[in-house]
Amino acid sequence: MTSRQLVLTTVTWLGLAMLPTGPAEAVRLEPYKDDLFAYPAIIGSDFGGDYLVVSFDHQRDVIARDEKPDEKTRAEYVSLDFPVPETDIVLRRDGETVHYVGIGRTEGNAEIVTIFLHGLGADRFDGMNDWRSGGNLNRLKNLMVRNGGVYLSADYAWSKRRAKRQIAALIGAYAENSPGAPIILICASAGARPCWELLDDPAAAARIDGAIMIAGISDSSFTRSATVRDPARWVPIYMTHGNNDSQVSWRRQEKLFRQVKQVAPTYPIKLAVFDTGTHRAPLRMTDWRLAINWMLEVGGE
User: Fold this and answer.
1) Does 5 reside within a domain?
2) How far apart are CA 158 and CA 291, in angstroms?
3) Residue 4 has pLDDT above 70, yes or no
């Protein structure tokens, strides 16, 4: 397998037309390279399995997995067999402009919608990088495309309130063009800031079916939000972090996890800590299929 050269086109949408859909059915992601991407070993567990400590080994999970560490993974971890190319899209809606890259059913009728928010110093194209992070983002793209979904990687303003409005507009657009499709946010590092803002807003949170926080910035005020206090508003949250992360404290995520469990013991929240993992380890190691299928299951109860 060799690297490909992608040609991205730009499409400007003033709005998204609602396309006809059939009866909604429960979504569950089918296996895809689970033998390569499943958690290698669970070395600790608490809260009935909601808090896991997962084995991470730099030699095994980075050096042996990549041709060039954290720059290009080995070919067996990547598949570029997509029926349609990635598309660079501009959305204009609700007074906001959002630049994002999409793959899969970008024009509508998606079975599931996943939106990736990158961290500081990155951009929307980083969320589409097939070869970095041990091929794990390529697996996420394949899981979406192969299950009739759409994967979007968005840019956003660094003002968290402006970012919230931008991503809310993107969520609204895909809630309309793929009615009934679960919408999952994946929030990496500083990209967690607008995600917490959205989860704190009852109207925005009502359209979100799950959020995965990848080495994310924490928000202690979340425990006081309507999303936590009202079981009817609960949005499943799956947090992952390396406990050797020198950029974003994993302890704050652990503290938030424990606070949520104290306020609402049955709230659907999980935390996976990668033992000895650094800041980028969760992007490489998070088992998307495991996390998303769990969120779809508890969200449908």
Assistant:
1) no
2) 27
3) no
